[in-house]
Amino acid sequence: MSGSASLLRIRGLCVDFPQSGRILHNVSLDAAEGEIVGLVGESGAGKTLAALAILGLIPAPGHVTGGKVFIRDRELTKLGEQALRPLRGRLAGFVFQDPLKSLNPVRRIGSALVESAMRHSGLSRKQARERAMEALRSVELANPESAMRAYPHQFSGGQRQRIMIALALINRPPLLIADEPTTALDASVQSRVLELLKRRAKRHTLLMITHDLALAARFCDRLYVMHGGRVVEHGPARELFSNPRHEYTRSLLDALPGRRTTAPMRSKHRKSREALAAVRGLTVRYRGAAQAAVENVDFAVHANETVCLVGESGSGKTTIARALAGVIRVDPEQLRFPSLNDDLPGAAVRARHLQMVFQDPYSSLNPRWPVERIVGEPIRTHRLCGRAEQKARVAALLGRVGLDPKQMDRRPAAFSGGQRQRIALARALAMNPRLLLADEALSALDIRTQARILALLRDIREERRLALLLITHDLALAAEVGDRVIVLRRGRIVEQGPASKVMNAPRHEYTRELLAAQARWRPENPGREGVRMYTPRL
Amino acid sequence: MILSGLAQRLARLAILLLGVNALLFVALGLAGDPALMLAGEDPTPELLERIRAEYGLDLPVWQRYLVQLGRMAQLDFGVSIYTGQPALSMALEQLPGTLLMAVLSMALTLITAIPAGVWIGHRPEAASRRFGAALTAVAQGIPGFVMALVLIQLFVVRLGWLPSLGYAQPAAWILPSISLGFFLAPKLCRVVSAGVAEAMQEDYIRTARANGASMRFILWREALPAALPAAVALVGTQFAFLVSGVVLIETLFLWPGIGLLLLHSAQNLDFPVLQAICFVVALLVFAVNNLADALLRLIDPRLRPATQ
Question: For A74-118, what is each residue's pLDDT tens digit?
């Protein structure tokens, strides 16, 4: 806060939930007029809760038990629901993470905007309409006239987030709170929404909540790092990155892709000549779709190597995974497993040698089954061994992925996201596969957890000489762990080659675009955007 | 697109009517010999022969089926065996009475079940709402005709406040409408409350709150619209069952409607009238189902065919 007037002041905020006790401990935070303040931390750190508490929006059983919140020296924490309501949207507007879920699917965009404008400003319907059009124009949405009549599902993710921003700004609040505004969006769309936010932020103070440190570093003036419901460190973004004082901040920075202290992902073993899976001219067209989901795709995966399929949503990467896994039937000529037992029919080859780990560790494990049953399921299905031995095998698998075998009679709900992904990995390894397919298996995880699971994947690959096919939208991650990177766009391969080559000398325009859009912090390029990283102690 | 949709619907209607007709034909064939009913006590064989010849009952089954099918195609259901009047016009004459009751009870259902559902769905975990929910569960368990009997006993017999028969005066409309409403209102209330409760957990409710919307606005303009598709679907599918309720309620209140006529015609094995009534009811159910479909598309934009 260098001289400019304070806009938002939070002092010693505490929030309790009856079941789980205190969730926010003594949180203090300042934002000056026109400043961009970042609130960073992993999921569950209390970032969103702190932001919601500003205007008394803590969800039901939770409540503020201490501390004060001021906006422009007005104390909000002493106001009741009735007094707060007219201030919501007026003192602060919210942009939430998932714009599809955050807009009512059965209401027209126009009606949401107009009602919101009329509610506070005492505008007539006609004036409110004008204001709504103006708001849509200000977020650079094409064709605001027809957008007013449309419903949320008729827009793309990026357009929806623009609409959310228009909705948040329609009552011209001094403070804009953006809670992971780009996490649900594709990389190339992300950067456009961020630029828009930055332009808008010139007239507003922006409180930006994100788990993405690289983004926060580029975007924010000052950062607050939260962990376990507390602010552990705060300061100017540059300083925080060049000279982190708190242990936790350091561990976050160390887990950034490209600077993880884990050893590289490349294999020590010699690369095998023969392909485990060979994809030749793979074409998949869904019924009724005008365009093929995947068209004429060629690549191979060998033992001891990590191949990354990179692309945005709709690029066809999951379709390829589904074809490999046998969920979609394809011409057997287009998909072969040459070095595997070819005398087995296709389905059996897959079951034996190809296993998958999926994106969402919360929905991909049966919540009613104990871990022993989840991990033991493939063993049971394929009758690999008897009951007694099954238990021993499950225990060994759990031990291998870093879980306590004694916990095998607990259910998935008892585990964190990272632990669940370990369970999923154990299940995949139960069949002793040759090819492991991980479909965005790291995307839902926090950065530090991601680093740990990556290290585990690498060790297991080395140990078992697996081929690893990693599907991701994250180019930085692909560059870090992949031997080879395949970039997909609209069902076609635009570029493939060794990871270092694709990242450092991308040949295709689209790859360059993706790289620029992600603009992750990279170790060989320090000082990007004026942020200098500290050197980790080794 | 629209034309082929319409053609599809008409084809479905034709299949529905054929099915209803065939089923009824078989069922009535099993029910008894109408000639015996007409002939009175101790008929002579000659009399029975004459009656059968007159109504075409002496023909082989398949011929009889085809004959009545051909007539139905021309909307000719023959004349009532009992009164001699054209069957279809008898059915249509009773329609207004039934529609009056249906509209009244539907209105009653909507204005009670929807607010009650919204109220319960707002905070389903609160003690008062749980009590309300339990009450609807109990109400759902009481058959509509039992409710009708209780209401008659109380308001007509004991208190003498209301007339129980006919529909000459509006006061007599009250009890039948309430009784019929009992067939649908508790179910509707539960569907609405479940829908509202679910919608209240959605992220867009948080967005509305963050924009300063009042709880009333959130409940009625944000949550209820999200719950309505399920409610409309329920009304659409339950309408056919409501018709069976109409028969019971009309009988209990001696309400001159299509249900009462159905009962009498069934007792007398008046085939032509039964066929005509079923034809009218099938059309009605079909119309309501399609109306519900159209309404669903109006409420939920995601169901509309994609344009652009």
Answer: 999 989 889 999 999 999 999 998 888 899 998 999 999 999 999
Q: How many separate domains does chain A show? A: 1
What pLDDT, on a 0 to 100 scale, did the predictor assign at position A299?
A: 92
Q: Do A107 and B209 touch (CB under 8 A)?
A: no
**Are B277 and B98 spatial neighbours (Cβ–Cβ below 8 Å)?**
no
The domain limits of chain B are 2-73, 90-303
Complex-level ipTM: 0.76
Most A-contacting residue of B203, B207, B295, B297 (CB-CB within 10 A), to test interface: B207
Question: Nearest C-alpha of chain A: how many angstroms from B181?
Answer: 28
What is the CATH classification number for the domain harbouring A301?
3.40.50.300
Q: Which tens digit of pLDDT belongs to each residue from B139-155?
A: 888 888 888 888 888 88
Instruction: With beta carbons less than 8 A apart as the criterion, state whether B197 and B124 touch.
Output: yes
The verdict on residue A356 lying in a domain is no
Whole-number CA gyration radius for chain A: 25
Domain limits for position A474: 275-340+434-520
Domain contains A87: no
Which residues in chain A have their CB less than 8 angstroms from residue B224's CB? none
Instruction: Tell me the three-class secondary structure of chain B, residue by residue.
Output: CHHHHHHHHHHHHHHHHHHHHHHHHHHHHHHCCHHHHHCCCCCCHHHHHHHHHHCCCCCCHHHHHHHHHHHHHCCCCCECCCCCCEHHHHHHHHHHHHHHHHHHHHHHHHHHHHHHHHHHHHCCCCHHHHHHHHHHHHHHHCCHHHHHHHHHHHHHHHCCCCCCCCCCCHHHHHHHHHHHHCCCHHHHHHHHHHHHHHHHCCHHHHHHHHCCCCHHHHHHHHHHHHHHHHHHHHHHHHHHHHHHHHHHHHHHHCCCCHHHHHHHHHHCCCHHHHHHHHHHHHHHHHHHHHHHHHHHHHHCHHHCCCCC
A85 to chain B: closest CA residue = B212
Residue A8, domain member (yes or no): no
CATH class of B90-303: mainly alpha
- Token couple for B163: 């007339």
Of all residues in chain B, the one with the smallest CA distance to A151 is: B301
A231-236 CB contacts, 8 Å cutoff, 24+ apart = A231/A27, A231/A28, A231/A29, A234/A29
Is B212 close to A86, i.e. CB distance below 8 A?
yes
Are B213 and A153 in contact (CB < 8 Å)?
A: no
Cβ of A328: how many Cβ atoms within 10 Å? 16
A130 within some domain: no
Token pair listed for A425: 């990995």
Instruction: Kindly identify which residue of chain A lies nearest to residue B229, measuring between CA atoms.
Output: A106
Of the pLDDT bands very low, low, confident and very high (cuts 50, 70, 90), residue A343 is: low
Alpha carbon distance B180, B192 (integer Å): 19
